[in-house]
Known about the structure:
This protein folds into 2 domains: 324 residues, Alpha-Beta Complex (Adenylosuccinate Synthetase, Chain A, domain 3), CATH 3.90.170.10; 96 residues, Adenylosuccinate Synthetase, subunit A, domain 2 (Orthogonal Bundle).
Amino acid sequence: MLDAVLSNSESVKKRPEGSNGGQEALRIPKEPGNKVTVVLGAQWGDEGKGKVVDLLSVEADIICRCQGGNNAGHTVVVDSVEYDFHLLPTGVLNKKALAFIGNGVVIHLPGLFEEAEKNLQKGKGLQGWEERLKISDRAHIVFDFHQAADGMQEQQRQQQAGTQLGTTRKGIGPAYSSKAARNGLRVCDIVADFKVFEGKFRALAAHFLGIYPDLSVDIDGELRRLKDYAERLRPLVTDGVYFMHKALSGQSKKILVEGANAALLDIDFGTYPFVTSSNCTAGGVCTGLGVPPSHVGRVYGVVKTYTTRVGVGAFPTEQDNDIGDLLQSRGREFGATTGRRRRCGWLDLVLVRYAHMVNGFSALALTKLDILDTLAEIKVGVAYSVDDKPLSSFPANMDVLSQVTVTYETLQGWCSSTEGARHFEDLPLQAQAYICFIEDFLQVPVKWVGVGKSRESIVKLF
Ligand code: GDP
Ligand code: IMO
Ligand code: MG
């Protein structure tokens, strides 16, 4: 077997130059080429990924989204203007860069164009966005009936199991279900022969109506609107595999990947079933963009200095008390996508360590340190136990997770403002100790610390 493999590679080596059928673009580069830098959420979302990506995207040539849809909500503040991104990569604000939506993303076309229009009205940042956005032809489309089905499924869960998942109702689960069931429709379908697309669209709509007879679907109306969107979409569409291959193997380029959702919402590694429907961890970068693993470079984890969660599901360090209220109000913890109040609690390092095991973070961005400024004491979850027995791992079973007792380490607060800090030494000693505690526990260096909403409000450690 080994001989066969060796002789095979030998024969590849001996193949004369130019014998690949003239497909120069397909030749695997001899040099490693460019690597992508990845920014991922390490908790249950809303850690401040948008702000970290905005910071890095100033120097980037391409900023990509690889998974999720408009369930994500990334708020960035530039020149006092607050932009909200859901489907568009945050880096679309960089007029010198390209923004790319990869095959792993599910796209609601009205949502995409509405989001651009809304942000266009807020400030100058989005001007010319259509010239700098590229969309993979392999990305799947979210239709209005996917969104309606999302709502219906939530109703059914409530009726049958007495609880919902608390989805964003953006059609994410149903659209990824269509993808997995292999009757989904992709960008390449809608920009091809519209008559053929129409046939497949009607079949898919009928499929959903078969499952949910009460679904309100305006098939003809949606088709009319989609025909218009197809025309606006066409100039943006590209073969995502070739696009990324060129970016990775051509001249030196800085490529950034903006994670959406987060590790504990990952369909495989998250707190299933209270998760989203895509891989929000590092693997999603390869499958959602067509990037070979050898081209994944630094992976930065974004960790909020406390924990929040939107929607339903176990949350061991949740503080359903004055502390939770304080974090919620000081942190203005309302969902950017649904406006829902986010549940709040102490930082849970058991959970972040688990996220690090899956993602292999190169370094961390700690966000919202300033929100802790008024606390005399700060707790950090460091271990779980059930019935007084320590748990050696982060549990897969949600019934277990909802029963855990958390062991906390109590650290001293600093009771002073960190908002003006720009260097580690500017931070109060207790805040420095808090950061060092996190680094020591996780054995991952902290590279940035967020001390406010705006682009400038950041401490860079190295
Ligand atoms: P994302 O989904 O991970 O991009 O995070 P969101 O944008 O949904 O939520 C993070 C919120 O915190 C946004 O409103 C940001 O403007 C804000 N934010 C990010 N970093 C900081 C920080 O360091 N301090 C403060 N006060 N706000 C921050
Ligand atoms: P960003 O990128 C916070 C949560 C929803 C719900 C669950 C499933 O802003 O961090 P879905 O609509 O995806 O089927 O909902 O996942 N959720 C998020 N929570 N931030 C997000 O994204 C989220 N994306 C999904 O609240 O509990
Ligand atoms: Mg968010």
